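Protocol step 4 of 6: structure prediction from sequence.
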Amino acid sequence: MGGYGLYVWGSYAVMALLMTIEPLLARRRHRQALHDAADEAADRNSP
């Protein structure tokens, strides 16, 4: 790799890490949005 192996493999490692973390964060945001929506619906239905 002409002395650039560290950068190439480092880039692969960073992308693999990001591709692992992003779905986890998206699932967390989705669950939080559902929780917030349920709370808002409950607040609207309470007298």
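Step 5 (inspection) to follow. DSSP finds one helix and no strands in the chain.
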